[in-house]
Design a protein that fits this description.
By secondary structure, the protein is mainly alpha-helical. It is 60% helix and 0% strand. The longest helix is centred in the C-terminal third of the chain and has 28 residues, at 159-186.
Length: 187
């Protein structure tokens, strides 16, 4: 089910904190980019919530990966990195049938690309990732995004299917924000 507008705005507002509190120092511009990406995701909403009732789907979001109590800082950084990569791939390479406003989509892709640049500049070995294999987390996120891609294919990349995916990604970014906050508070 699509998110109500006010909830989408709340997601954007709650996502203001940067990843810079995680295991590496990200640039000061990272937090505003995060804000902008989430704002754009909310603005991309094209269909009213009730118009896609027959398209609802449980993508089985892996909530357990976003438990800040369980993950080390380096693991959390890696989850954020993988999640951002997957969202970039979903929205920025699967656009042939997407119903989005192209200006908003280009801005979203640009913002995600800048976030990935920030994250890829973080030396993961220094952050302790070398000692913490993330095969399970990476595989779980890969499976989650594979379910989303298969859903889009099954629904022929219809506007309602894309709207369900946009709403799902909004919810997953909310969980990502909660993870970032938990890790930041532990410091």
């Amino acid at each position: 089910m699509a998110l109500p507008c006010s909830f989408s705005v709340a997601l954007v507002l709650l996502s203001c904190h940067s990843l810079c509190c995680l295991a590496c120092d990200l640039p000061d511009t990272h937090s505003p980019r995060n804000w902008r990406v989430l704002t754009l995701l909310g603005q991309m909403r094209r269909l009213p919530a009730g118009s896609c009732v027959n398209y609802t789907n449980d993508f089985a979001f892996p909530k357990e990966l976003f438990d800040g109590q369980r993950l080390q800082e380096a693991q959390a950084l890696s989850v954020v990195h993988v999640m951002t990569q997957k969202v970039f791939h979903l929205f920025c390479t699967n656009t042939s049938s997407a119903p989005w406003n192209m200006t908003l989509l280009e801005e979203l892709c640009s913002g995600l690309s800048e976030q990935l640049d920030d994250l890829e500049a973080c030396p993961l070995q220094e952050a302790g990732l070398a000692e913490t294999p993330l095969m399970h987390e990476d595989s779980t996120l890969r499976t989650y995004f594979q379910r989303i891609s298969l859903y889009l294919q099954d629904k022929n990349h219809s506007p309602c299917a894309w709207e369900m995916v946009r709403a799902e990604i909004g919810r997953s970014f909310f969980s990502l924000t909660i993870l970032q906050e938990r890790v930041r508070r532990r410091k």
